[in-house]
Fold each of these.
Amino acid sequence: MQQPELEQVKVTGGFWKEKLDVIADVTVETVLENLEKAGTVDNFARAGLPGQKDKAQTLPWNDGLLFESIRGAADFLRVRPNKEIEARIDRYVDVIYQACLRSETGYLSTWMMMDFPGLYFDESGDARQYHDAYNFGCMTEAAVHYYKATGKTKLLFVATRFAEFIAGNYGYGQKADGSKKINMVPSHEGPEEMLLKLYILYRDNPELKAEIQRYNPDYPLSIDENEYAELVKFWIENRGNYENRVGGANYGVYAQDHALYYDQTVAAGHAVRANLFYTGMAAAGREFQNHTYLATADHLWNNIVNKQMYITGGVGAVGMDEAYGDNYHLPNDGYCETCAQVAMGFFSAYLSLSFGDAKYADVVENYIYNGVLGGMGLDGDSFYYQQPLSAKEGRWDWINYTPCCPPMFLKFYSEMPAYIYSYTDEAIYVNQFVSSELTLPDGRKLTMESGMPFGGDSVITAGKDTELHIRIPDWVGAGKETIRVGDRAAAYQMEKGYAVLAVKAGDEVTVSFPMEPRRIYNDEQVAFTQGMVALGYGPLVYCFEGVDNPTIPGFGTGEFCMGVAPDAALTARFEAGLLGGVTTLSAEARYYDYNGKLQTVQAKAIPFYARMNRGVSSSYVFVGEEPKAAAGRPKSWLAQATSSRNNGNSPAAAFDGDPETYWAAGSQETPQILMVDLGGVQDVGRVKLTFTSGQAWKYQVLYSEDAKEWELFADRSKNAESRQEFEETGRARGRYVALKCTESAGVGYISVAEMAVYADGSQTNLAQNKLCGATSYSNPVDSPFAMLDGNETTRYCPPGEEKPQTVTMDMGGAADITGMRILFEKPTDWTYTIEISEDGQNWSAYQSETYHMNQDKIWREIDKAARGRYIRFSITGTTGGVWASAWEFDVKTAAEPESIFAGLLDSETPGPGSAAVPGDMDGSGEVTIQDVMEACKVLARQSAGKVPTQEELLRGDLDGDKLFTISDVMEICKILARKA
């Protein structure tokens, strides 16, 4: 069976036309730009220069990432010419070519040349770090693909010169000097399949081989492509053979070097390396008709798919070594590196061509829609390195991350159109349902219009007589498809998962699959999902995301935060305005509120690929069929930690100086209040608010010296302007500053990325990392509020072992304390102190001890009377390197103090009211020359685009037009004149 060339398939519309446009127009540019910024191209400019002593600017594998990106970009160029991208790649190739000419042998891997000059491959001494063979493979692949896209041969010369060096010195046979070639197999696999492409190119185009041999007379080449084929075979066949191995290396199971290839029956080791090795084995088995290669690859594929793959296609569950684990070891927070999933897609595509069984194309489809697509944000320039089923981390924008997944992502989707169809001399196979046109060299043509993934109908029109093999996806269910030719039911037979029927030129074949929500259950041998269910729709796997389910308390705490019962009705609805247009699923879910009462809600699920596109929000693929009871009601306290590993969506996230984290209210009820304690009475001149999106946010900003009597600083309760950032200015003195959100601005929840408080004219944020709190919060994660949320499955956790770590808490009012109880994280010796204060300034000791905790989930109960409002809890020591973390902290009181938020929640809008003296801008109680000056400052700020605060308008709008103008300043001057 053959795969069509990219030029023979055109994606014509629908879901995939839109996605591929974003990838081609945005992602390609993003990936190349970031690799260039990182210094990847500059490494080539410096490598091999006489006297060069600088180290490489990037990591050992960045050469390969650049070449992978060129390969992906080249495939897009084949069907989407882009002069700017082509010119950019030409510029890179010029630099790479010059580096090649500086290499005596043709070897070209910049990190090794600059950090370990003169050493090749494992002679570096670090088998996990060296990537020069991997970089070489990526170079050959890029050269082949770029030649096919542009006809340009400069990079092909560079790659061939490198290939001649490797093939002449490593593998089977003898070197030119008669000595035995060295046993070198790539530690990071991939070159097996990549070098095979160079062999095929020269085998099928002997005139091109002659052209490259003559490319640069100063560097003559004697190309024998059969040596490349033999080297590919050597790399496959000598895993587990350490005789005469370069550097005496034995990579072990980590790099699939623990056994000869045909003795490997269970996928193991680093999942990316493994899947690239298996891909190379499948490609070589197909090319050389080596049935041992193919049988081994197929056995490993079945092991992965049946015992080591998540329902999204995720593979490599173990974070340590980014590796495969034991069979059925599939925890919901498993590692699932995107690169491993891309490689598994390539692997499956080769087996599909070799065996013609629909099960391989089923897996390719899973990656197309779930396991790979989920690795990129809808914007095309944000990504996921890992894709666990249960996600709490947001997408990253490349900075400070290994950027290996975006180039792999490019390779997969630039080639994806070629996966839609395959063919033989007699038949055309429809493997994927994508609106497209196929034109084969023999004149056979198909067109397809498909509603996938949200619509189940596809119409296929034949341009010539042929035999069609139409894949019936596994998710459809046996016999549930409908196939018609014109207006009559089609006669067809099922073969290897394909519906087989003969069609005539002009025949219109309509294939219909039932599109309805479905429940997905894991194999019962997967212990992590017992009692759990996932949802699917068509080829898509779904997940529940916190942003869509804000009313469920503690949504971020775990998959059993709610339960979707086996008999709960499932409803599908297409929402054109959501996430680029998606079908959402809803189901009645049950959850326990913080009072332990069972509640119901219509829970909403979105496609797995679309998660984390509306800010950071926990998401789960599997959820319980029965919810777990909440431990208790969260405490409406202010809190502050010396440090925390993650602020989640807690109030602290709005005061941590990081705009990527945010507070999210845990309820859609309004009003919601976010409050900070500045630690003492301060002059406040400016409050800056950064919400998580541009909406018509409606709110008030208030301040108080004692958290009892509140005054208005700014009022946007009737705001109609959609913005993400707001800046309020005024004059106030207060210790507490509160944001009171009066409506949810139409997005269903309230969330604030940052709330900053400044004195007039200062750039120092008085609110950063101060005591803070909120009326509700959706996901405390590892913040101090995780100790106060009434949930024993969330914890406060600092970012490391360093101690002491302290959490300071404000109960909101002084109370008679009768005792305390603490649930530390795990069994160890906990050395800690507790102090109490009524004013937050003068502290007295309450408890100081080393507590021996001998088993999990045992509370430390303290019965001791005291009086106070503030509590300071410090963990000063543990044994065994345990971090200073705790699940819960409770205080028992004779009477619960009134919540610090109660007054603001229950009262009408507080403010200066009629007591304000007209014209008194500085609040002194009378009109003076200082007020005229202050009025002029308001005008000056207004001319710079600043909006006067409500208090400034109240005091200074003397002509009643609800604006602040020069006429108001004149009226203040008149008051002052009358006084004189």
Amino acid sequence: MFRVGKTVKRRLVCVWLLVFVTGVFPAGWSGPSPALGAESGSNLTYYGITDGGSLRQGVQFNDVGTGYWARDSIVRVASEGLLLGEGDGRFQPAKTLSRQEVIAGLIKAMGMEQEALLTTSVGAQADPWAQGFIAQAKTAGLVDDKQATLAWIEPVSRQEVAVWLAKALKLTPNYGGERRSLARFLDSGDIEAQAAPWVDPVVEQKLMEGVSDRAFDPQGGVTRAQLAVILDKADPILRPTRGITEQRGKIEGIDQITGFDQGYPVNQTQVRVANPDGGDILVFQSPQRMSDGRQAPLDRSAVVYSNASKRVGGTELLKAGQEVRYLTDSQDEVFFIEVMSQSSPQSVSGTIQEVNEAAGRLVINDEQGLPTIIPLGESVEVEVNGQPSSLSDLLYGQGAEVSLADGKAAAIKVSVPEPNPGYLPPEQQVRYGRVVEVGEDTLRLLEDGREVEYTFTPFTTFVRNNESIVAEQVRPGDMANVYLEDGLTPSALRPGQITADPLQAARVVLEGPAAQVVNIYRGILQEYLPASGNLVLKGAGEYHQGSGQYQQSNWINQKPLERFEVDSDTQVFVGGREISLRELKRPEYKGRRVYAATRNDYGEQQVVHLAVEPTLTSVFYDQIRRVNYGESWFRLSDVNLYDKRITWDDGTLVLHDGRLVGPSYLKEDQDIVVLASPFGSDYRASMVMVETPYYPSGPDVNSRKYLRFICGMIDDLSVDQIKLEDAYEWTKQERVSLGDEEYLSLSQETQVIDSTDGSSPATLIDLNELYTSWGSEDADNQYAYLIVYGNQVLAVNLRNGGSMPPTSVRFRAGRITSIKPGSSTSTRVDIVVDQVKDWVGISNYWQLDDSTSVSLDLDRAQVVRSGRPDQPTLLEFENGYNRLSVLKQGDQLYWLEVSSDDKDGADELSPVLVMAEPR
């Protein structure tokens, strides 16, 4: 399919309209070149920027020679506008920086420069130009109110830079036993106590180095060259916030073309680049001299930098066969091209920062401390201590050697020190297993068939998908890496003890969706191909969580033949008995119906559990009435099955929210889907899928609450408190009265939207406006919907009057399948959700929606994701900021719908409160 950049699309329309209307081509036109509108295979076309010549001139520094140690970084950050020259062709690399200069560079890197330039003085001890940057640093959480009063014109310290950098990159602070990277510095004690947890991950990821092997020098200064290197290392992470995209490829050819741009003659240089997505065309042009005095199109060029020769120039530095990386901005224009060294590396060594199978990438901090993003090959060989392993065995922080083939990871070797008996070295202070249960301050994991208990404290950090979460968001079935506090090795049993003392967790990192089951398929076993590791199913259909009333609608997207990947991790069961993959070649299994649970593997469906049915299988959708764990059976509520037991065994796959859990997780009153075969007078379950969505509330709502939906009439407001009357809470999907009065806490982090006027999107207001407009004694018929953590208000949605509590309410759940922006003139975002379920309060169960998917209008809803509201500034909101940008595809949504008070028809329901949980 032909793809083309935004700029080219506009030109394409102009050219072909001219042809269509006049029936002739512009004079001298010899047919459209690929860049001027003709389709060119699957290539994308990017033009250079109009001020490319000026930009190129601006990075030609006469005091940074080709042999200067930081030249590469200086050219890169200057080309991106993060750190400019000092005038007269000078960069002044040795100049020591002030606090305001460093914070300005970080705010630019975070994509907040425009907001900073529009902000007037905030009273900081800084130069006028820096006031807005300091204000944005507060907004972004880099500094607090106290730190904002610093003398910003004074020199910055290395410690301050490290803390700001960690917060800008949203690194997780390292506390207690996690903080090991600073231990090698003899002056680590000079780092302030509140700063050390932030400095440690910066050093750990080699974003900043010590001034020597044994000294960090926390109070030392930072030069312009040093800041350039720091920003260069951080840029790959922050670059997307500025709408900048990096791509890599190999130059296939360079064409010099004379043509027309909007009817004007131009000289073009077209650079054809092959990349993993097919290829791109980079177009640079200069206008021909116009004899009639007409205004010619502007030059379009870019900065070209060779990291081998260290030269800065234009397209004259480009040649066929070169490996290049190029940056495009939010307007799809290329502004920087770097020619890589001709000798492509065959291997990369460093520490693992991220393994993302779903995205097909590996991130390594190489030996120079630079984060390197390496695409994963189609088949990657993994070894840990010389033993065959898989990508799922790789952990953050492990040392690895990556062998490359065509620029992609082909093999990964990891060496993990083996522990001596009775000794647990630092490298082994990490445990791995499946979460069995989460208590008030304990976490139990299933590790190699045995349960191990850990304790955690308020200082223990929990992370999922590189985002901080709270303990209540850890779910049974999660795969977790538990990092132990220093010195807490497994203790020996004391006299009278049955089990050892629990270990204390400093940090718990949960695996992302790549490790979870994504689909269940039903089909006929056609063939197993050991050589290719493929399983072929005939008539394979995907299970859809639709209504259980019509079972034939549960299996959708059926295909004549479907291939799935299998490997040594795939478990195969026949009638509850585990067999090897090789046994699937036996003729008696061909033509049998099978059920396959799959997860994503490089975009392919890999089978993790396969059940071969001995007889025909029935599908039951019902609630569990009784569970007998000792005898391994449960009964359903269906009157037709009232006396039938459904048993489970080692071959039974139990799933909850895409997570593998054991049968011990099955509880009474759960909604489940059961795939079961007749077994004597009863049934034997092959798969049990728990349909009851996870509700983001603690296990005991009376003692520990996570997120709460509350509504009530506003009775009084103060600077830190809101008082509601006639308040109600939806606790575990049921409405509960909170009494005549309910007091809740407000903070500067509380987000408030006003949806009383019915406009879309709703209006973002600050707390001062809330006090002024809604805190007056004569305010009448005013009420609010709130998302609350414990007693702390996270988000408020102001609504018009009506019945309290509202008469028409619906509590729903579902998973986001797509997020699509609306028209270019609207801030609306279309959220499509499937697996939709409605809570039936009278019967106390979740009813599956018959619809395949539903579209949600959240323009007037208040949204909290991962227990945190998004925090746009009022300026961002007024300029069309999209509050829903925090949502991600795959998020589980829980939302409250009430009658729309501004539309015709009181029975029309619309979302007012939304909780989003990343999978």
Amino acid sequence: MLKRTFDLVGAALGLVVSAPLFLLAALMVVLEDGRPVFFRQVRVGREARLFHMWKFRTMVPDAERRGRQLTVGEDPRITQVGRWLRRTKIDELPQLVNVLAGHMSFTGPRPEVPHYVRLYNERQRRVLELMPGITDPASLAYFDENELLGGVADPEAYYVKKIMPAKIRLNLEYAAGANFARDLVVIAMTIKQFALRLVTELPELPALPSRYRRIVVALIQLGLVALSSYTAMWLRFDGAIPARDFRVWLNALWWLLAIRGLTFAWFRLYQGLWRYASLWDLRNIVAAVSLSSVAHYLLIHRVFGWTSYPRSVFFIDAGLLVLLMGGVRMVRRTIGELRHEHHGRRVLVYGAGDAGQMIVHDMRTRAGHSYVPLGFVDDDPGKIGLRIHGVPVLGTGTSLPRIMAKERPEEVLVAIPRADPATFRRVVRSLDRYNVPIKTLPNLREILDNRVELNKIRNLSLEDLLSRRPVGLDQEALRVFLKGRRVMVTGAGGSIGSELCRQVAALGAARLVMLDHAENGLYAVANELADRGYRTAVRSVIADVTDAPRMEQVMRQHRPEIVFHAAAHKHVPLMEENPCEAVKNNVTGTRTVAETAERCNVDRFVFISTDKAVNPTSVMGATKRVVELLLQTQGAGSGTTFVTVRFGNVLSSSGSVVPRFLEQIKAGGPVTVTHPDMRRFFMLTREAVQLVLHAAAEGENGCLYVLEMGNQVKLVDLARDLIRLAGFVPEAEIPITFVGLRPGEKLYEELFGEDEVAAISPMEDIMAARATQLPPRDVLVRDVARLESVARTDDADAVLEQLGTIVPAYGRRKEQPVEAAAPSVMDLHHLHVPEPAPPMLPEQGQHCPMCGSSDVHRSRTRSRSEDVRKSLSLKRPYRCHACSWRGWLVPMDHDHEAAGGFPVPADAVLDATPDLEALDDMVSVGATPPRRPFAPRDVKVP
């Protein structure tokens, strides 16, 4: 009885309230396609009784005879007005008449046509026991049913098999617990959806020229001035304004309009775009209204003496006018936001900080984009339940699977520009089971004025998932070093060599000589540099680095001042099968280029090595280690500075596993991984090249430099991340298989060998590998000559034996099985590092006191006072890469005796003064010789 009474009263009120919409819709239908205005269709009601359901006509009059009953998408039978009526749901308003007639209720299952009811099974026919209605939970869930059906090949089949059973199931579940309160909630949600759709589908008004627009805006605001003034008088006199006071008000109104009009012009209130109204506009409105109200009061009471004009009206009028002027601006802005709030891909935003709120604000205010913010996820529990720009914070990162299952977003946006790679990996792996794209924003340092915009959104890349923060080194120092220099790059067609050529040319070298034995890669990079229009003179040279006469002729001709040697055989399995060729190219070739460079007075020779040269188990790594030893001994007394640079796997290089994984993913899998515990260091190509260039600029003769590589990455995790970034679900869509270790491979790589220690370098984020002992130069040269001799005879067994003689670690490891497990983090604390040379890796457990990040590294002292403080305290200088904080912290490792430092008593306080004699002894033993500053040499040309 209560529901029927509500239906009668609500339907009657609804017809009265919506009468303007009725008239508008009827007029539109008649003007476009004539009569009839309404459309009646037979539907199945309660207890399977048939009735006629009323709608506004949205199709041509003879539509039922011209096609199927289901009309969706761009059906030609739907009129232009009909499309708008359907999108706004105004075509459903005449069903209020069916509610009054008792055929329908406000809430209940939507009645179907007999054709579809005949397809119901026994369970589905239970829905016919319910009174049909205008709205129901299924209608809310499928509010955009027409758009959904318009995007499938066979709409009718999709409706019968997918949508209709789902709607019946939702209605039966709702009916099981239906009550009047729940009905009211459904009605309220329907009205909200209807209002939002009506606003978003309103046509945009044509833009007026600037001069006409200002006139219209001025007239609207002056109209609001008159309205608020009259309303203030009406409120002051409780709706009955005396005739005498009304005349006074009317005389004062013209002065009020003039004063406010001039004041508004002074505050430029006629120039703002209302769709972008902000606090700045509200501030100007308050200031303009306040100033004009004071001026009006002085004019009326002090100048004209109209004391009968109520003083309270000035205050009421000012308050009302601020509300009216601010309100019309916010209504315009709200309409603009609602127009595109429900159009686009539903996005879940990870990160409710500054970047997150800025990007959501952009989504909600900018037209023409394809994103709808669904909600926030943030690791701060205090933000849960709050709303930012109307978008709720749904939970923390640990709740991500639950949120994904409930909300079903179409994309996830990680809006934490300073997030460390661990955060990205955690998000990616928590989304493994969901096939949704993951996107992110660039680092805030890359966005001008910290402005985060929609066009900055990009796909998440593998670089974001590295276990270390990408290193950015000073480009200006490199520009000063290379500008005007003649540079040669060997192996210029390879991944490292070609990137070297790009950066050298971009930094202003006078001449770039690109040398390679293979023509294809060299041709490609030469064309690329030509297309970029660099002013550097580029010369392409085809030559074999093992051909001594040819190398002599090239260097004599082009007179390079700096040589970057990137030519090498680097595929581990291939070199295991061809050890003699590995020696010929990697050892003989490098020695030939180095000796030729020294004879031709080259200023700097930079050799590119690999972490596989550390305690090598492969032929490729052993040959690289042989060359490292050669160059470290060759620099003594030479006019050429020999520098070696060692780094790990380079993403996307020809020798990296990443291209192989990508090829397998593209082919549909499986992705093959050698071992579940296989780990590798990874870095970016541009970072590797920057390291090489900085080593060339600032490196010492005979030194070997290593980039701070962070933690090693499990290849199986890398494979899963690549599959995920490619848009597939690991294991479910792209399988991963393990094929076993290949010859020469290790489970994990190392940065320093057993005969090396880590030391500080003149470059930030770069370490130096100091050899504890080097073989005598004459012995090493003799052993290398024998190695090259047996390689020329293609005696593989003799080559392997001689490699073991020169590199003892390789000889021992060839006889030992490969380790069965690898440490998850490269631990450098066991290495002997003198106090002036702390390791540059982040300390486990150390966090930044400013931002809480774990990306905290040791920093060098910067002044004499810091040197003194460091010598008298246990604290050490640190720098945070996340927020750039720099300060003093106590190292997490207090075992100074094991590290070669002075003994610390168990009860020592943090800033206790140590034994100065022990300190002097430690400094004198561990101090490194002073470095000479680099100055370009005058190259002598014969």
